[in-house]
Amino acid sequence: xxxxxxxxxxxRFIHTRRVDEAGEWYALDNAAIIMPAVANRVTTSLFxxxxxxxxxxxxxxxxxxISATAARMPYFNVTLRRGLFWYYFEPCEGAPxxxxxxxxxxxxxxxxxxxxxxxxxxxEENRVAGEFSHAMTDGTGGLTFxxxxxxxxxxxxxxxxxxxxxxxxxxxxxxxxGADVPKSADAxxxxxxxxxxxxxxxHSAAPDEFEDAYQRHFPRGLPFPDTAPNAFHMxxxxxxxxxxxxxxxxxxxxxxxxxxxxxxxxxxxxxxxVYLSSLQRLWHEAVPRPRESFIAVEVPINLRALFPSRTFxxxxxxxxxxxxxxxxxxxxxxxxxxxxxQMKLEYDRMSIAKHLSRNAGSARSLAVRIVPLGLKDIFARxxxxxxxxxxxxxxxxxxxxxxxxxxxxxHIRSFGFIPAPSQTTMTNASMLSWGDELRISFGSLxxxxxxxxxxxxxxxxxxxxxxxxxxxxxxxxxxxxxxxxHAVLS
Length: 490
Hints:
The protein has two domains: 2-183, Chloramphenicol Acetyltransferase (2-Layer Sandwich); 245-489, Chloramphenicol acetyltransferase-like domain (Chloramphenicol Acetyltransferase). The protein is 30% helix and 21% strand. The protein has 13 helices and 16 strands. α7 (267-285) crosses α8 (332-346). It is globular.
């Protein structure tokens, strides 16, 4: 009996869906519980995926695709609510609406405002974008929703994927039965994937798709990781409220891999080294000399590669790659080698388990659970300052190669991935590849563009020429869609 009660209590931490006299709701996962306390209309917690298609968006088909995707993944179609002790997600009635796009993505969206969904779907001309709150999901989960949305859109347009969706290489596309996706009146019938559960009820989705995987893999009795020193932060004036500048650099994936191989590192490690090189130039140029002598780049890691899970909620942590500027400037070769070995030391199951133990254990503490939500918010902000962005100068997130079924791929010109805004680190980066196109996107709330300028200049010195474009100009409205490298970054 005692064993059964213990097992039941364990499952209560893992399974996030609840049904009680008030109806259906979802508990926040371990990584999400801090986000409502630190999010606002500027640091919205939203990150973004976008795709440019080969023709203008059919809004009727896209609306049908949104409905089908939200029905298949109902744990995404939620709004944030406050309880006495915890935040929780409440399912929304109806499908998410379709919004026009903006030159400033990921802005003007307050997840703490009652009725605001944790995602926003936007369209303009050929481009469709999905913006997702980190309170709800991480990059892997957001990309799954976005790829499923695109698949349902193409199915609604009568385009055959050419493969069976939902299995094998396409298991991250959760398209419903073709009958559930309304077709355009003149669209031919596409092959219907036979993969999804009945979408009539929210609970039809498999529970492991929205479990708290941090709690499933919670390791007991491990020591906590060492606390990193405070990191150097750029002290720049902010852009006007509501402005979030995005600078995209597009280059050849194969050429970048050749350079990474020359250095004996992975593509991610190469880009982290370039990021560190850019930060160290900013540090040495700063007047007066910064008080913090460490520069550190956060590299998010997908824990599903280390701890098996099918969750589409948050399940990621990070590795910090740092350098002490008191030792002097390092060459890009030195930074690449040191980044490689730091990643080797930190990115292993045992080292990551220490972070899991610290982060997931707090939610199990009775002393934490009985503290009213207002006090939890205060402590959450303090903890976020101590163990969050204070320890990093910026981050770069690499989601790797994006793939779509052969029937859909010819209709997609490009993919993009834009990081969530931060008023502390100010400028951050994310990257992915689509075919031989590697796109690195910097999102910034800062007026100066020094970090971006040094980053792409360093790539050029390595023989990698990027096509750079800016979406939001500091002074006026919008940059031209394509500008010369030096003009965009000056």
